[in-house]
Amino acid sequence: MDKYIQKLNFDFLTNQRVMQLIASIDEYRGKWNVVEKRENRYLKELRKIATIKSIGSSTRIEGAIMTDEEIQKLLKDVKITKFKTRDEQEVIGYYEVLELIFDNFSETQLSESCIKQLHQLLLKHSNKDERHRGGLKACQIKL
């Protein structure tokens, strides 16, 4: 194996230039790591904003009246175990399901069973929705 390894012998100026190029590559790599960390922070903030907007829009479709600001405040205090209003119950359930989806989307196989499980989690804090939690609503279409 040693017969295939050949030591490169450069003159002084070429050796200096190679060392400068290696240093530049190393410097670039260090800068890239800083940018990557900063971008990750921005992506986390965007995810947080998108989550709040999505929760607000989706729960308001169902009749909730909480504003995005109220939702953001509630999510900061997620340690609460008993939620006062149905709006709070729906918001927390929606948040928990979104986080589960974000964290596991690549391993999740979309199926009726999966949708029912997500619905079960979505309404786990809601007493009013106990009767159809984890099930599908019947759709009545009049023609």
Task: Please tell me about this protein's structure.
With 143 residues, this protein is mainly α. Helix content is 62%, strand content 0%. The protein is built from 4 helices and no strands. The chain has helices at residues 12-61, 68-76, 86-104, 112-122. The radius of gyration is 27 Å and the shape is elongated.
Number of domains: 1
Distance between the termini: 81 Å
Largest sheet report: none
The outline comes out as elongated
Oligomer: single chain
Stretches where pLDDT falls below 50 for ≥5 residues?
none
Give the ordered list of helices and strands.
HHHH
- Note the beta-strand portion: under 5%
Q: How many helix segments?
A: 4
Number of distinct beta strands? 0
What is the CA-atom radius of gyration, in angstroms?
Answer: 27 Å
Please bin the fraction of helical residues: 55-70%
Structural class: mainly alpha
Average of per-residue pLDDT values: 80
Which helices and strands occur, and which strands form pairs?
Elements lengths: L11 H50 L6 H9 L9 H19 L7 H11 L21
Short characterization:
With 143 residues, the protein is mainly α.
Please supply descriptive tags for the structure shown above.
143 residues; mainly alpha; 4 helices; elongated
